[in-house]
Design goal:
Number of strands: 2
Structural class: mainly alpha
Low-confidence stretches: 117-122, 242-249
Strand order of the largest sheet: 1-2
Mean pLDDT: 75
CATH class of the domain at 122-248: Mainly Alpha
């Protein structure tokens, strides 16, 4: 009995083992199932260990080989720093120049105020009009008297020349008429019209007309006309504008 029960137990154990093996065999995955499971694992974003990144690439990267690699050195930061320093230096230089200009202008303005206005530069005044000497030191003190004396001695051209160049000298040095060394007789009259009163201007026009008639027209003037011009000259065309104004009243 005991042996029979033992054999029965062994048989049941064998049958149980065969059943388990059959069940395990039935549960074994096929290759297709394995591939499907692997694909599912790869598609799971939580299980991926790789990431996809997009980068711009040059078609011809060798064309920019002359540029330094910003990752290899700090050249870009150095360039920005250098430009910043240069810009700061330019601003300081321009500011200094502006201050200097203001100081120079202020100094000139103060000098003008202290001197009562800009002084005329006598170096720019003409010494001759064409070939005639109009310097004040080249003229006699009494131009009219000397000119009339020359006329009476028969030196008519010298008398008219003295009257004419003395007239130009008084216009330039006493009345600041802007006559130049190349001014013509007509230009001298036009320039004098803006600076002289009516009476001395009339005398200037008469003297210049007499000069033109004698020199260019070869005409002999009436002695009484020349005498009248000589007598009026010293009173109406005095060396100073103040004296000339008194004669014009």
């Amino acid at each position: 009995m005991r042996l029979l029960e033992l054999l029965r137990a062994l048989l049941m154990a064998l049958m149980l083992g065969l059943s388990v093996a059959a069940w395990a065999a039935s549960q074994e995955a096929t290759p297709a199932q394995v591939d499907q499971a692997r694909d599912q694992l790869r598609a799971d974003p939580n299980l991926q260990d790789t990431q996809t990144q997009r980068r711009l690439r040059l078609k011809n990267p060798k064309a920019f080989d002359f540029l330094p690699d910003p990752h290899a050195s700090g050249w870009l930061k150095g360039l920005v720093r250098a430009l910043s320093e240069a810009g700061r230096l330019v601003v300081w230089v321009l500011g200094g120049l502006l201050v200097l200009m203001v100081v120079v202008s202020l100094r000139h303005w103060l000098q003008v105020r202290a001197e009562g206005g800009p002084k005329e530069n006598s170096a720019v005044l003409p010494t001759h009009v064409h070939e005639l000497d109009i310097r004040p030191e080249s003229l006699p003190d009494q131009v009219g008297s000397v000119a009339w004396s020359l006329w009476q001695r028969g030196e008519q051209h010298a008398a008219l020349s003295l009257l004419y160049r003395a007239t130009l000298s008084r216009l330039v040095h006493a009345h600041s008429v802007p006559i130049t060394s190349a001014s013509t007789e007509g230009e001298c009259i036009q320039l004098a019209q803006a600076s002289l009163a009516i009476r001395p201007l009339g005398l200037v026009e008469q003297i210049i007309d007499a000069w033109r008639l004698a020199v260019y027209g070869s005409r002999t003037l009436n002695a009484e006309v020349v005498q009248a011009l000589c007598q009026r000259f010293d009173s109406e065309l005095a060396p100073s504008p103040g004296s000339a104004s008194k004669g014009a009243l």
